[in-house]
Amino acid sequence: MTFWENLLKILDSKMTLPPAWGWFHILFWILTILFAVLLCVFHKKDRPERVRKVVLAVAIVVTILEIYKQINYSFSYGNGITFDYQWYAFPWQFCSTPMYAGLLAGIIKKGKIHDALCAFLATYAMFAGLCVMVYPNDIYTNIIGINIQTSICHGTMISVAIYLLYSGHVKLQHKTILKAMSVFACAMGIAMILNEITYKCGLEETFNMFYISPHHPPHLPVYSSVQAVVPFPFCTIIYFAAFSFVAYLILLTAIGIRKIALTIQSKKQKNALDKMNETSLSEEKVL
Known about the structure:
Number of helices: 10
Helix content: 55-70%
Structural class: mainly alpha
Radius of gyration: 23 Å
Strand content: under 5%
C-alpha cells in the first residue's frame, strides 16, 4: 500500500458500535464537563480578548476534525484511492454552524456581530450539543475517528456555551436571545438556499441541510411529523420557532441559576455582616 492508502486505512479504523450511555459515551460526557469546569476556573474577569481566543482555538480544532470527517467520508482505499463525495455530509447542518460561528466570533473583535455570534454559541449551539450528547444513537458509527470527532465537536458546544454564560461574555438578559436568533435565521436561510440550488442543479444524491428541504423525505424525529402535514414554507416557520423556544429556555435557565447564585451570595454576606455586628456589640458591652 502507498502512504496515502495506509493513512486512509488508519483514519478508517473500526470499533464496536458504541451504545448510548456506554463507557465511550460516558467518557466524553466526563471530558465535556471537565473542559467546561477548567474554562470557568481559569477564567479571568474583564478579559474579553481571552474569551475570544478560547472560542477561536476551539473552533479551529473542530474545523480540523471536520476536515478529517470529510476526507474519511469521501475517500476509500482498496484497488487504489477512489473519491466519491457524500453530499448528505456537507458541513452545513444545524450542528455544523457553531464551527463557523466560532471561527467568526474568534476573528471579529467585540461588537454587535461578535456579540450576536457568541449569543448563538451560548444558546442554539448548546441545544445542538445537548441533543446529540444526550441521545447519540444516530451519530455513532463503527469508525473510531468519526466517533471521536463527533463527540468532541458536540461536547465542546456545551463546554463553550457554559463558559460564555459563566464568564458574562454573553449577557444574561432576555434581549440576548434576539441577537442569537438573527444568527440562526441567517444560518437557516443559507441552508434553504443551498437546498434549492442543489435541487435545481439536478443533484441526485441526498442534500438536505438542516433537514428542512421540501424535496426530500422528513428526517428529524418530531419535525418530520410537522413537515408531513404542514405545507412548505410554513413548516420552516414552526422549525424556527421551536428551535428558538428551546434556545430561549437555555438562556432563561442560565438567568435563573445566576439569580439563585446571587441570592445565596447575598445571604452569606448578610450572615457575615450580622456576625460582625454581634461581635462588635459584645465587645462594646465588655468595655
